[in-house]
Structure formats: structure tokens, C-alpha cells
Design a protein that fits this description.
The chain is of the alpha+beta class. It is built from 16 helices and 13 strands. Strand 2 and strand 3 form a beta hairpin.
């Protein structure tokens, strides 16, 4: 039997933290494989035989591509002394087509072997725990698995198109084991529901990094909220390990055997445990949305042109599309223009707010539209497009444009467009929320709604207020 013994612990890295200490001296041996003979064979019926297989499971890391964990198959051949850690998570940021493939959703990953000791040193150096489970395979099954990974490593076979959920390092390892076990893993787990979704599992793991959590949650569309099976949840290495620890293989002649041996900690880490489950909706997004949306309305009230009717002391809105200057108010003799200097700052601030929100939400909406022209299937069919509409880019130009343009027919046309566009944006956002509320559509995007709906409402009300609302659709008198 092979016995793992942790030699270097991420909990006490020691010299690794000393500046200038040679890396070759700081990196100690992490993995010790001790073939125990004689008595060990009595404890483990799978100990005798030249091929021995282990499942290595690496916990989460700090980088975005490390947050979901990793795994590998360690195969040792006692006849030759060869031991290799085979994994399906190889990629290269420096590939010429890495960025284009990333944008298209067709990233090319590969598989290959690594020497166990340097392979595991990288995880100790980055404070990532590593677990090892002996895989109880017959020699025929172990030989088939060894032959498969070597075939998979042929240059024409090793590359594959990576999918975050359906075809990654963990699902490839799962499928390799399922192949040599005649499909028993799939038969056991494919029809067993978890009651959870890809979004649930993803947000649980990335919640400690806020921008990753919110970015991933925004990008995941309705497919991310479809309940998945235990088989599908094995896209996460830790889930795969935990399910297989309770799985038994059915023998051809009857009886069963546990697939995995006891879990052993190979590399220790000092990370705090994650909270159980993903974070809930954040009231903070609602407060920010209400604050900024309310600020838009307040600025619109302050920026709207007003004129005082003689003898009344009341402010009256001038004609649509006009400014209450001495020239423009000449059509209503005796009405003084009031507050023009005081309106300049609110108009500038309102224009800046609408431009900022419209640009931000509109660009995100364009991103969701662009996803339909890629292989990012989990971004497609995304209800956030109704809250972050590409139309907001038009509103980001029309509302500030109306505030900055001089009075005249062109300004009135811009005002009409601003009212229509912002009203359509708001209507789409409200309809989407209503359809979600009655169960016609489903996507867990409460945080996005909390932020975007008040801002879209504020933008629409502000456009209505500064342009004069329905009066913008009255025909201007002819100008000579």
C-alpha cells in the first residue's frame, strides 16, 4: 500500500517567506510514497499489483481560475518506479489565440503528466490544501485507466475545448474513471438531484471576492439557475471527491467494494472555511439604487426651466423645448426669467449622472447581446439585459444632449427621444420583474434588480421632468 505523509505545511511555510532564500532550498519534499509490503496487503486487497492509483484533490486558491479547485490522477507503476500526476487543467495565457478564444467561449485546454513532488509544491506555496484518496481499482481497471490517459496524452488527443461547467478538469477525470468502471458512476449519480444550481455552487466558492461574485452572478443567465444532478455537480473537484467517497463499485460476481480509500491530508493550508451556501440578496444594492435614482429626480426638479407669472408668485413651465431666456419668453410679455444661473449646476450634475449610468448599464447590456454570437451558452438567455439595456447608451446621449442644447426644434426632437427611450427602458425592466414574479421567467438576479430598477426609474422621471413630459410632443410653431 502507498502511504502519503505531509512533509511541508502551508500552515508553517517557514523559509519560504524569507526574502532572497533560494527557492530550491525552501521547497521541501511534499509527498512520500512508501510501499508497504507483507502486512499491508492483508489490510488492503488492492495493494498487491504493480499499478496503484490515487485521486488528488486540490482546494480553492486566490486567483479567479483557482477558486473552483483542481484535481488529478496519480498513477504509480512499481515495476518501473514511475509515478505521474495526470491532470486536465493545462492552459497557457501566452498562447497567440488565448484572448480571442476566451472571448468566443472556445478556450483550448489540454491534459498531461507532472512529477508529483514539484506538482504539489505549487499548492503548498500558494496555501492550498491537497487531499489524497487511494482509488480501489483492480489491476485490469488500473491498466485500462493508465492506457487511457496515455492515449489521451497523444498530441492529437490532448487538446479540448473547455467549458466551465460541462467539460473541465474535474468532469474529464470523472469521465475517465467512469469509463474504466463501465459507466457505474454515471448510472449512480446522473438522475440524483442536488436541489442546487450552477449559480449556487459558483457563488458559494467565489463569495469571498466581491467583484468576482457579482460579476459572475451578473453574467450567469437563466441556464445557471436550472437545478443540476449530483453527476453535474462533479464539475467541482471537492464535490467529486465527496460523492466518490460514499460510492461503491458493483463486482461482476456480486458484492461491492468502496471506490475510494480514506481521505488523507497531503498539504495543509490556513484558509478560513467558506460560509455555507452562497450569499443572499444585498440590501446595499437597493439603497445605492434608491439614493442615486432619487438624486436624479431631485436634480431634474432643480434643473427644469421655470418662469414666474406676473402677479401670481407661481412658477410656470415654459413652452416645450424652449429656455426661459428674455428672448424666448418674449412670447409671454411681462414674465420674468428666474433661477437660470442656479439651474446650471443641477443640469451639469444630472447630465453627468445620466451619462454615467446609461453608459455603464448600456455597455453591460451590449456584452449580454454579444454573448449570443459566442459559445458562452451560460451567459445567453440572461434576464439582466432588461435591467441593463443597450438602449441606455442612447439615453446616455439624449438626456445630456437635451440639457446642453440651445432652444429650438432640434432640442425638442432630442427631448422627445429622451422621453421615449428612457420610458421604454423602464417599461422593459418592470415587465421583466413582473414576469419573474409570476414565475413565467426565473433567474436569481435580485441584486441587479435592486440596483438597476430604481436608477432606470430615476432616469425616466428625470427625462420626463426636464423635457416637460407630454408637452414635448406638441408641434412647435413655424419659424421663419
Amino acid at each position: 500500500m502507498l502511504r502519503f505523509r505531509p512533509v511541508l505545511s502551508a500552515r508553517h511555510p517557514g523559509p519560504l517567506r524569507r526574502p532572497g532564500f533560494p527557492a530550491c532550498m525552501a521547497l521541501l519534499i511534499l509527498l512520500v510514497l512508501l510501499p508497504a509490503r507483507g502486512a499491508a496487503a492483508q489490510d488492503d486487497p488492492f495493494a498487491d499489483g504493480p499499478l496503484q492509483v490515487w485521486l488528488l484533490t486540490m482546494d480553492r486558491g486566490d486567483e479567479v481560475y483557482e477558486m473552483f479547485g483542481h484535481n488529478a490522477l496519480l498513477i504509480r507503476d512499481e515495476r518501473t518506479g514511475e509515478e505521474l500526476a495526470w491532470n486536465w487543467g493545462l492552459f497557457n495565457f501566452e498562447d497567440v489565440d488565448f484572448i480571442p478564444r476566451f472571448l468566443r467561449g472556445t478556450m483550448r485546454y489540454s491534459m498531461g503528466p507532472a512529477e508529483p513532488e514539484p506538482f504539489l509544491r505549487t499548492y503548498a506555496a500558494t496555501n492550498r490544501a491537497v487531499y489524497a484518496n487511494r482509488i480501489h481499482l483492480t489491476q485490469a481497471e488500473a491498466a485500462e485507466l493508465d492506457a487511457f490517459v496515455r492515449w489521451n496524452y497523444l498530441p492529437e488527443n490532448r487538446p479540448y475545448v473547455y467549458d466551465y461547467y460541462r467539460d473541465n478538469c474535474s468532469t474529464r477525470l470523472r469521465d475517465a474513471l467512469d469509463l474504466v468502471l463501465g459507466g457505474q458512476i454515471a448510472a449512480r449519480f446522473q438522475d440524483r438531484p442536488t436541489g442546487r444550481t450552477y449559480r449556487w455552487f459558483s457563488r458559494e466558492l467565489v463569495q469571498v471576492t466581491g467583484w468576482v461574485d457579482q460579476g459572475l452572478s451578473f453574467l450567469l443567465g437563466m441556464r445557471g439557475d436550472v437545478p443540476i444532478s449530483e453527476w453535474e455537480s462533479m464539475f467541482l473537484p471537492v464535490e467529486l471527491m465527496q460523492y466518490l467517497e460514499g460510492f461503491s463499485v458493483e463486482e461482476p460476481g456480486g458484492g461491492t467494494r468502496p471506490l475510494l480509500g480514506p481521505r488523507q491530508l497531503v498539504v495543509e493550508a490556513t484558509r478560513d472555511p467558506l460560509p455555507a451556501g452562497p450569499p443572499g440578496p444585498s440590501v446595499g444594492f437597493l439603497l445605492v439604487g434608491l439614493l442615486l435614482g432619487g438624486a436624479m429626480v431631485g436634480l431634474a426638479v432643480a434643473a427644469a426651466p421655470r418662469a414666474s407669472a406676473p402677479g401670481t408668485g407661481r412658477s410656470v413651465a415654459p413652452a416645450a423645448g424652449s429656455e426661459p431666456t428674455a428672448a424666448s419668453m418674449g412670447r409671454v410679455p411681462g414674465w420674468p426669467v428666474t433661477g437660470a444661473p442656479r439651474r446650471r449646476l443641477p443640469r451639469i450634475l444630472l447630465g453627468a449622472m445620466v451619462f454615467a449610468w446609461g453608459s455603464f448599464s448600456g455597455l453591460l447590456g451590449l456584452l449580454l447581446v454579444a454573448a449570443w454570437f459566442t459559445d458562452h451558452v451560460f451567459i445567453q438567455a440572461n434576464l439582466n439585459i432588461f435591467q441593463m439595456s443597450p438602449l441606455a447608451l442612447v439615453g446616455a446621449l439624449l438626456v445630456p444632449g437635451f440639457l446642453l442644447m440651445p432652444a429650438g426644434p432640434a432640442r425638442e426632437r432630442v427631448g422627445r427621444g429622451a422621453v421615449v427611450v428612457t420610458a421604454v427602458i423602464l417599461a422593459l425592466a418592470i415587465v421583466a420583474v413582473l414576469l419573474q414574479g409570476v414565475g413565467v421567467l426565473f433567474q436569481r438576479n435580485v441584486d441587479v434588480v435592486f440596483l438597476a430598477l430604481p436608477l432606470n426609474l430615476g432616469m425616466a422621471v428625470a427625462a420626463w421632468r426636464v423635457t416637460g413630459g407630454l408637452s414635448t410632443f406638441r408641434r412647435l410653431p413655424a419659424h421663419s
